[in-house]
Amino acid sequence: MNELRIALPRPCDENWEEMKPVGCNRICERCSTTIHDLANYSPDEVDALLGSREPVCVRVQQGPDRVAATRNGGGGRFQRVVIAAAASISMLAMGSTATAKEDELEGVIAGQVWAAGENVVVTAIAADGTRYEVQTDRKGRYRIKHLPFGTYDLEFSQGERTWTEMAVVVKDERITYRNSQDPDIIIVGVMTRYLDDYS
Prior knowledge:
There is one protein chain. The longest helix is centred in the N-terminal third of the chain and has 7 residues, at 43-49. The protein folds into two domains: 3-88 and 185-193, no CATH class; 93-178, Immunoglobulin-like. The protein is built from one helix and 17 strands. The protein is mostly beta strands. InterPro entries: Carb-bd-like_fold. This is Carboxypeptidase regulatory-like domain-containing protein. Pfam families: CarboxypepD_reg. One of its GO terms (molecular function) is carbohydrate binding.
């Protein structure tokens, strides 16, 4: 199956529902930019959008398999659009660490939840079932302090939605970073081609 692989390097926190409709798309008043709803485009039409010389802002509905919702394009070049760059939407478990000076004797898990909005509850669950719970700030950031060394599952919940990131290891007096996003979510942001990949 031919896939058009895209990246979303700059997610946006503007509210799609508050944008002014223009045909099948909407206008972001903050930057006066047309936001293209990929659900109304075929995969080949998304490919054509990527040919623009200007940055292309889009609304994407992404499923758990990272396939973007698009219009059926029939027998075109591409059969589907895949969000291929994990780091672009912060699904990547970042390997870098930073010294936690204020927590000299304890481990910390910190990160950011993209595009899910405010008030996401983040819970680190230890192997013995002990739970350490915090809530994200308005930018989706969180930090869970005072964690004994060990392996934790991270549970993210917002209303009725819950998803999990498995096996986050806290093994020294540093900050372990783990970013996440709701696995079935609407993303608004700049779209680029993934490494000019035409696989």
